[in-house]
Each structure stands twice: as structure tokens, then as C-alpha cells.
Amino acid sequence: MGVKTAAMIQLVESPRLVWPTATVRTSYLVGEQADCLLRGTPTDWLGPASEDFDEFVAVRRGVRTRWEVPSTIFWYVSGEYYLGTLVVRHRLTPELAEVGGHIGYHVVAPWRRQGHATRMLAAGLVECRRLGIDRVLVTCDADNEPSRRVILANGGVPDGRRQREDRFWISLDADNFGS
Ligand SMILES: CC(C)(COP(=O)(O)OP(=O)(O)OC[C@H]1O[C@@H](n2cnc3c(N)ncnc32)[C@H](O)[C@@H]1OP(=O)(O)O)[C@@H](O)C(=O)NCCC(=O)NCCS
């Protein structure tokens, strides 16, 4: 029996944003490792994750202070498959208002170029709306064309460049999201 690559897998359930969950352990570890290897970034953090995945998940669930603001980590998940991560920062510091913004995300390498990031950001905007954020700042590296497309497809309106990051505002008005 051959190994299935992500491109060969038909997702039965539509992916959705959930709190980190141990149900996607294998897929998370494989996906994040592939991502690190592609980017040439360290994989050592995956060791402790692999040894005690329940603990790894537990410390990522719920609202936690990161970047000096309340933040929520979501995983984009379909059944047993982990596709990516989206972080919502509930408010902006002066630094985040320049670069970083409310939302950060990535789709792991095996699942890219299938429209997942575009849909994941749309789902992230729904979470922002639930948190009472009505204007969302998203920033991306000036060279990051895929991310720029993801942001524009979700209604991002350009607002200049700071420190090599392009900035975009997305309005979550009632027309888009109901009230
Ligand atoms: C940026 C990223 C999230 C895109 O994820 P993805 O699931 O592949 O994105 P999508 O499939 O929704 O594609 C979005 C658009 O980018 C295009 N695209 C995706 N990868 C591309 C690539 N390598 N080269 C050129 N275009 C690309 C798609 O064709 C699509 O364009 P379209 O809307 O005109 O059809 C993913 O590449 C990633 O995680 N990168 C590393 C982390 C990162 O950059 N995060 C964003 C920080 S702001």
C-alpha cells in the first residue's frame, strides 16, 4: 500500500477552525515537519510535541496572552487532518498596529494551493466578528504574493507598507457578516 500525499486525499468534511485538538496528532506532526523542512527552519520543537501531544495541545487551547494581548490559536481541521493554524490577536498594541495585525496564519506545505488559506482566513474573520472586532488589520511580507492574494480575496484594502510588510484592513460590517 502506497503512502497518500495530501493532494490525493479527498476531505470528507469541510475544514473548520477549532481549538487545538489531539485528534489530529499524526497529521499535525507530519504537516508541521514538512513545513519546517521546506522553509529550512528548526524542527526541534516537534520533539516535545511528539512526546506529549496532549500537553502540547492543552497549553494552546483557550485565550492566552501572547504579543502582550489576549490571543486565540485555532487549527484548521477536517476530521483527522490538520491543514494549518490561524491566530487571532484580540486587540492591537502600537507595534501590532504597525506590523503583525490581528491575524496570523499558515497552511502547512502538503495542503497548499488548494484554496485552504483563503477559506481559513474567511473563517478567521467570523471569529473576529464574534470577538467584537469590526476592522481587522492583516499584514504580510511585501514579497508574499500568495498571502497578498488570500487577503485581497477576503476584502483587504491596502493601507501602505511598514518595515517591508504590506498592511490591509478588512471591514466586518453587517453587510458581510450579518449583525
Ligand atoms: C500564504 C499561504 C497561507 C497560502 O496558503 P494556500 O492555502 O496555498 O493559499 P490558497 O490556496 O488559498 O491560494 C491563495 C492564492 O495564492 C496563490 N498561490 C498560492 N501559492 C502560490 C505560490 N506558491 N505561487 C504563486 N501563487 C500562489 C493561489 O493560486 C491563489 O491565487 P488566486 O486567489 O488568484 O487563485 C501559505 O503559502 C503559507 O502558509 N505560507 C507560509 C506562511 C505565510 O506566509 N503566512 C502568511 C503570513 S501573512
From TrEMBL:
Residues 35-175 form the N-acetyltransferase domain. Pfam families: Acetyltransf_3 (PF13302). It comes from the Bacteria. GO terms for molecular function: acyltransferase activity, transferring groups other than amino-acyl groups. InterPro entries: Acyl_CoA_acyltransferase, GNAT_dom. Keywords: Transferase. This is Acetyltransferase, GNAT family protein.
